[in-house]
Structures are given as structure tokens and as C-alpha cells.
Design brief:
alpha/beta, Rossmann fold, 3 domains, 7-stranded mixed sheet, 4-stranded antiparallel sheet, 17 helices, 11 strands, 12% strand, hydrolase, ATP binding, magnesium
Length: 472
């Protein structure tokens, strides 16, 4: 399969959005907000449950039709569709979205339309869209890519969840490729990447997963620059896949080294100016393919007596740094793909982005966008998962607990019921958890797990399983 992509077709991570941190659009999604706003009016006007249910279903049917019309329009005419006019910067849709069915599933469990005083929230709309996307992938998913921090593991932490490891393993056994696509970049130093996912690799080893199965697991570092593949014949270590074997996309898409250096130099100088203007107590880090700022700790306090950022950075500050860099790169007219993003407690600029990485994996595995799902938590305008919407279907989660809920739902629609197929050997579970290599998180035991109750899919026999049920 040949994928022909020109530099001009690269998606902008911000689209036409104005550079203004006061713009609420930086922290919202246009489609989610359009649906939530329409539902708000439904709940405001209608006083009975039946009316709210009927009008909510009609609202989702309208948006489902708008998406169908958008998908049916020629690519050069999509900007004139009603959906594009209603939702600024709306992404591509590589599958239909059964929004009405997803709403029915959600409402039947959580009784949203039975509420009298609390209308639908942004998170609820996000969950319903996630359910719709999972339903749409019933017959097509061949590759699932994941962000790292706050998707497979908590921010700055390591993979250590037995249940999530078992879900990923079941998908690998079912001929689904899995890839961790992370902004973390350590060159081809496989040990540093392995450190973040040691728990998952230990799970593969303990379960003696066959080499041809684990060969479907990849790690792609620095957004799109350093690819590894799990090697079951080498004690489940990560083996590099060098550039000449896979490098993204087509000839002519390769990064110009001079522009890469210019890009990073410009990003670094912009960060240094921002550090002075905003009195940031931060540390600047320059890597081979990236440059970024992180909290500066004690040294930062010493160097900048009056300022902020030694222990953590405010969202507004991080967004300001990101948008300054994007503006500087735009004005410089550089054409090399890049990603400038707010990482939650740091800001980074990478050469390349996840659009390049995910599309490169599709090319390497001979897959099409509708066969790929990207799962991540950074889909807002300053997030680095946003670019994947131009090359894959997506699910927007907020934490690893939601990732597990999404995968559990996906296993159901793929007829791979986790309760019957994924029961863990209790001796293995006890061995791994007692050694501290993995930790079995009971869903619902922490406050962060509450939002995971949003993804509910019917089982094969038509019954439902509570999403916070931890029994095998």
C-alpha cells in the first residue's frame, strides 16, 4: 500500500484557532461542546423524562447525520458542510459514528435523562462519543496506538497494572497490533523505554507469550523518530527498527536535518525568552530531536528568586509557552513537521509529531486509517494526541482507568469477553503483585476511577456487566 503525503497535507495542531490563552477553545473540543450545548437546551426546555429522552435521541441523530454528510462530501468541499461550519476545526471521521445507539447504551445504565437538576456534562458527551467509536470498530480494528502518561500509566510513573496488561495481551493474541506512541525520546537506548513499561514486558515473560504474538507490540519514541519492536526470542526486550526499515511515509517526506536544527534552535530561543518574561524557575533540556522545559526544583528557586515553576507549572504558563513557539515557527516559514505541546507539567517541542508516527506505522503494517485507533488524553489544542485525528479513529480518555474501560468495551464488541477469556492465573497474579512489578487496581476503588463508569457495551448475550466489576 502506498501512502502519498506531501508537507502541505500535514495537519496543523491548532488549525485556525487564534493565539489567545483567554480563548476557552484552548480547553474544549468543538464537537463535544456543540453536542453538550444542544443537550443543555433539551434539558432546559423539557420537563419529563420521556421528553428529554426523545429529544436527546433526536439531537444525537442530528449530529450522526451531520457526520455522515461530512464524510460523504468531497474532501475539498468539507469546509462548506454544516458540521464544519458548526464545529470549528472538526477532525476527519474514518468510520460512521452510531451516536444514537451509544447514547441509548449510556442512558440505559446511567439514567442521564432521568436527572431533573443536572444536565449532561462535557465528560458524558466525550464518553458517548467514545462508545460510538468503539462500536464502529467492531469489524475493522487492526492497530491500536496509545499515548503513555495518563493513558497506559499515571503521569511520570511506570506501567504496573495486571488487568491492563491482560487486556493488551488478549488483543495481541487476536492479531491486533499494539503500539505505545510517546513523546519521551531516548534515542535508540531501549533500556530507558523498557523501564517505563517494565511491568508489561514482565507480564509477557511470566505468561510466556509466544514470540510471534509479542512481535505485534511496538514502542515509538519521540513522537515518530525511534521505533522498537518486542522480541520474544530475546527475553522480551525491545529491538530497534532502524529508519531504513520503516522511516515514515514516502521519500521527500524525510526531515531536512538543517531545518530540524533551525526548528530546535528557534524553539529553544523562544523558550529562553519566555523563561525571562514569565520569571520561570525551570530547567531547559535539549535532546537530539526535542527541546523542552521542566520544573527547576531547588536550583530554579536559587536562580530565579521571584517567580514560579520550581515544583510545578500552571496550565496557563505552559499554554503560553507552546503558543509562543508555534507562532515563532509559523513566522519563520519552516516546513518540517513538528509538535509543540503542553505535557501537563512541562512543555516540549519535538521534530515530527504523532500524525507522522501513526501514519508511518500504518504504512509499515500495510493498514488504512479506519483500521487504526489512537487512545490518548491530550486532544485539546495544545495537546500532542490531537494530530492523530487526521490519520486514525480516536478515543479521548482522561486516565488509565478509562483506558481499561475502553479496552474492556472493545474486547466485548470484538467477541473477546474478558471475563471468560482473560481470567488470570491467581498464582501468577499473586507472584507479580507481591513482587511489586505489577499492581491490580480494582476499578472504582479510587476517586480517579469514577469517570471509567462511562464506557458500557452490551455483552454477547445481551446482558451488561458493570464497568467497575473487578471479578474474573
Amino acid at each position: 500500500m502506498a501512502l502519498s503525503v506531501s508537507s502541505a497535507s500535514l495537519p496543523s495542531l491548532t488549525g485556525p484557532d487564534p493565539i489567545n490563552t483567554a480563548d476557552r477553545g484552548l480547553q474544549t473540543d468543538s464537537l463535544v461542546e456543540a453536542i453538550r450545548g444542544a443537550l443543555h437546551n433539551v434539558f432546559l426546555i423539557n420537563t419529563t423524562k420521556d421528553e428529554r429522552t426523545q429529544q436527546s435521541r433526536y439531537t444525537f441523530q442530528c449530529f450522526q447525520n451531520l457526520i455522515d454528510d461530512y464524510r460523504a462530501a468531497p474532501e475539498d468541499q468539507r469546509a462548506q458542510t454544516r458540521l464544519a461550519q458548526l464545529c470549528r476545526g472538526v477532525a476527519d471521521f474514518f468510520t460512521p459514528l452510531p451516536l444514537v445507539k451509544a447514547f441509548d447504551i449510556y442512558d440505559s445504565k446511567y439514567c442521564m435523562t432521568s436527572r431533573q437538576f443536572v444536565g449532561p456534562s462535557t465528560d458524558e458527551v466525550r464518553h458517548i462519543l467514545n462508545v460510538a467509536q468503539v462500536l464502529a470498530l467492531r469489524d475493522s480494528v487492526r492497530l491500536i496506538t496509545f499515548d503513555g502518561d495518563e493513558t497506559l500509566y499515571s503521569d511520570g510513573q511506570f506501567f504496573n497494572d495486571v488487568k491492563l496488561a491482560s487486556f493488551l495481551t488478549q488483543l495481541l493474541k487476536s492479531n491486533v497490533n499494539i503500539a505505545l506512541v510517546t513523546a519521551a525520546g531516548y534515542g535508540y537506548d531501549h533500556e530507558k523505554y523498557e523501564g517505563r513499561i517494565r511491568g508489561l514486558l514482565d507480564f509477557f515473560r511470566q505468561q510466556k507469550i509466544k514470540p510471534h504474538v509479542v512481535s505485534r507490540f511496538f514502542v515509538l519514541g519521540a513522537e515518530c523518530n525511534f521505533l522498537f519492536r518486542c522480541n520474544g526470542s530475546d527475553d522480551y526486550h525491545l529491538s530497534p527498527v532502524f529508519e531504513d526499515e520503516w522511516k515514515p511515509l514516502q521519500p521527500g517526506f524525510r526531515f531536512d536535518e538543517a531545518q530540524c536544527k533551525t526548528l530546535l534552535d528557534l524553539a529553544q530561543s523562544t523558550m529562553e525568552d519566555a523563561m525571562k518574561d514569565l520569571k520561570l524557575r525551570v530547567k531547559l533540556i535539549r535532546k537530539e530531536k526535542a527541546v523542552g522545559i521542566v520544573p527547576g526544583g531547588y536550583e530554579g528557586r536559587h536562580l530565579v528568586p521571584e517567580g514560579s515553576g520550581a515544583g510545578g507549572l500552571r496550565r496557563e504558563i505552559l499554554d503560553e509557552v507552546v503558543l509562543r513557539i508555534k507562532d515563532a515557527i509559523r513566522q519563520a516559514g519552516l516546513t518540517v513537521p513538528f509538535c509543540a505541546f503542553n505535557g501537563g507539567n512541562d512543555s516540549w517541542v519535538d521534530v515530527g509529531n504523532k500524525f507522522v508516527g501513526v501514519l508511518g506505522l500504518q504504512h509499515y503494517l500495510d493498514l488504512k486509517p479506519h483500521e487504526c485507533l489512537h487512545v490518548g488524553d491530550q486532544f485539546l489544542n495544545t495537546g500532542n494526541d490531537r494530530a492523530t485525528r487526521s490519520c486514525a479513529t480516536t478515543v479521548w480518555i482522561k486516565n488509565p482507568e478509562e483506558t481499561k474501560a475502553v479496552l474492556r468495551a472493545l474486547l466485548r464488541v470484538l467477541k473477546l469477553h474478558w471475563r471468560t477469556d482473560l481470567c488470570l492465573d491467581r498464582r501468577l497474579t499473586n507472584e507479580l503483585t507481591s513482587s511489586g512489578k505489577l499492581h491490580l487496581h480494582p476499578l472504582g476503588d479510587s476517586s480517579t476511577a469514577q469517570s471509567t463508569k462511562a464506557v458500557v457495551i452490551e455483552d454477547r448475550d445481551g446482558t451488561e456487566e458493570d464497568s467497575d466489576d473487578d471479578q474474573c
